[in-house]
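ugh ok fine here u go
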Amino acid sequence: MITFIFIIGVVFAFITLISSVKVINQGEKAVVLRLGKFKAVAEPGLNLILPYIETMIKVDVRERVINVEPQKVITKDNVTVTVDAVIYYKVVDPVKAEFEVEDFDTAATTLAQTNLRNVVGDKSLDETLTARDIINTNLRDVLDEVTHNWGVKVTRVEVQKIDPPAEITEAMSLQMKAEREKRASILQSEGIKQSQILEADGRKSAEILRAEGDAQAKILRANAEATAIQKLAEAANKYFDEKAQIWKKLEVASVVLANNAKFVIPTSSDIVNVLNLEGDKSDVIPMKRK
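structure:
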């Protein structure tokens, strides 16, 4: 009998020892209660408690996510839209998170839905569709202010979708299509205008270059002719003596009288003596040297 009682005692002591040893994982904390009253917060690792007197409640302190179910919200301009959101939070005070709120997920979801209706209801449809960041910030500030008393930190709130009615979506699609077509027409017109401007500039530049080329060519030709005349004048001054002048006069007379042409020439001219136009019988009268 004594042996049996001893065995029972050993087993009870072993069970008691085992039940007093608690292991808390990384990313968790625990609230220790002694006879139902808060005693301490246990950190991750191996912890010992008094069996049968103390109990331990584990609390996950990692960041967690709550999905806010889609709900219909009326905007400021009386358009019904369907909105949902995602809440990211983490427990910063395990004691408050355990004792200040019964079910944080339900409380946070209800609070987010209520404030989502308020925030979206203060904006028009266009503002709601283009101001997601403002809505996210406003929701986060409101939720964080309330959940602070619950030992929870709301890190961010993201509105996932804002769906207007089908007829509004179709009208917006047609408006966007019209805007795209308008921008395309404007861009096409600008392109044609720019092309015409560039083409006109090209023609203008070509005409200017052509005129500059013609002017330069005329200048070069004029310079060449002037140089030739200058050279000819220099040669005439140097080589065109009296006999050469008489010979040149004969050539001119031969050309002008080739077709039995008649000319009135003063008798005092030297060319009359050369051509024997005074009626002498001899063909050519030699020139007298002056």
